[in-house]
Amino acid sequence: MGNQVDKLTHVNYAEVPTSEPNGFDPDGEGAQRIGVSYIFSNDDDDDQDETLDQFSSSSQPASHEEKPFDLQDELECVVYYRDECVYERSARAAAQTQSPEGLMAKCRPGDLLEFVATGQYPTWAVYVGDFQVVHLHRAEIKNNFLTDVSQGKRGRIVNELYRYRALPPEVTVRNALDHVGAVDRELCWRNSECFAAWCRFGRREFKIGGEIRIGKQPYRLKLLFSEKKSHVLEFQSLEDVVMEKRRNDQIGKELFFLLSNKRFK
Known about the structure:
The structure is a single chain. By secondary structure, this protein is of the alpha+beta class. The chain has a single domain (2-264), classed as endopeptidase fold (from Nostoc punctiforme). Helix content is 23%, strand content 21%. The chain has seven helices and ten strands. The chain has helices at residues 50-54, 100-104, 146-150, 169-177, 192-201, 238-251, 253-264, and strands at residues 31-35, 76-81, 84-89, 112-116, 123-129, 132-136, 141-145, 154-157, 219-224, 230-235. A hairpin with a 2-residue loop joins strand 2 and strand 3. The radius of gyration is 18 Å and the shape is globular. It starts with 30 loop residues before the first strand and ends with a helix.
């Protein structure tokens, strides 16, 4: 049923039903829980989010010029499937970004790469050797040089973010290369992160409709602002978690914090 929903974009938290009337997470001090069961639209790696415009100062028009990536503005988060941690990005474990040229010297076939820039969705890719990566971009799976895909953005190796057991590197590379040229309705992934993660881990949860949505919400996305302040959102599928996580990455910690305070004040 979820696959038939083509567009539901820019949902703001005021429209999201809360699972707890008081908004607090009974599992953690200071955490706020929101129940979420939406199917989000495909995110496009180059598109800007209108949310950035809505919260810009009236005296300072929104600018879509690319800004340097600031690691301090990256939102820490943890994803749980029931009680099992399946993804974690913390300040301590966050990899420092590098120039595309520096990244090429460290990549090994089968590595997952993430290219980041402030105000944009992250771009994920699979390194397949010879300075080339396979990635999903604008409804097509492409094989390009790493420097071309980066478009000048800084990048990092992100093999360890997901806690699933990785496939052998040669299988990861084959998974990626076997789908080069797939377009539109041939695609089984909503964004570059889902595709790249599927290549490395081979789990159906990353595919469109890979999990049946039957009302329960076994996934929790915990967004961390400090040791005592966090938000917890609930989802029916990992696919939905990834979509929301990427949207928050695009917004950044500072703006997300303002949105959250506006929602719960």
